[in-house]
User: What shape does this take?
Amino acid sequence: MPLLRTGDLDLYHQVVGEGDPLVLVHGSWSDHTSWQPAIEVGTRRKDEDDLEALIERLGPAPAHVAGSSIGGSIALGLAARRPELFRSITVHEPPLVAIVADDSDALGQLRPTRASMDPVLAHLGKGEYRQGARQFVEEVAVGPGTWDRLPAAVRETFVHNAPTWLDEQSDPDWAKIDTDALARCAAPVLLSGGTQSPVWSATILDRPAAVLPRARRQTVEGAGHIPHVIHPRRYAAALTRFVRTS
Assistant: This one.
């Protein structure tokens, strides 16, 4: 137990994180655990660090890594910092919207999606996770009628992880990536999108495709944002072919 002697008292304390010191002082009706929710606020960088730890500890690196949606953003973000960890990377529609901030056409395509996200955020902010998850699937990620076609277990997974998505949206860097650093990644990278997805998702893929030296593009016919769920055989076949040739 970390204790610091001061006067005639032993003060309990914890040290977490890195960077310049920040001392958190709790109120009289609580203890150090009251700060935990603020300490654990998620960032994509933290997710990248978790992926880094998995690859290094499970080993051996380099590893084949596949990521979908923000999982793809996490994989590419880590590849920009630690390219030597990757033998190949497969990403499907990473929502790196910040990299098209200079493209007025792409921003125009994004506007309806951003508008659809507002009610999702409103539901989740009130703890209405099922309503928010359904609206996200039907109006943002895939399309109308999709929610009822998903297996019950998949729907429950969406509901359970709704707070995680809400937490990610609070990270100011969730949609960014250093494309200059990413260009140093020499691993083969498959960038995929679905024919049923919004046009802006393909526009986003243009940016990493332009800088990655061994990038390939692929379109998954009939698929949207979650092909590994809606078209698992088709997605798995494409992923397997890529990994085998990498």
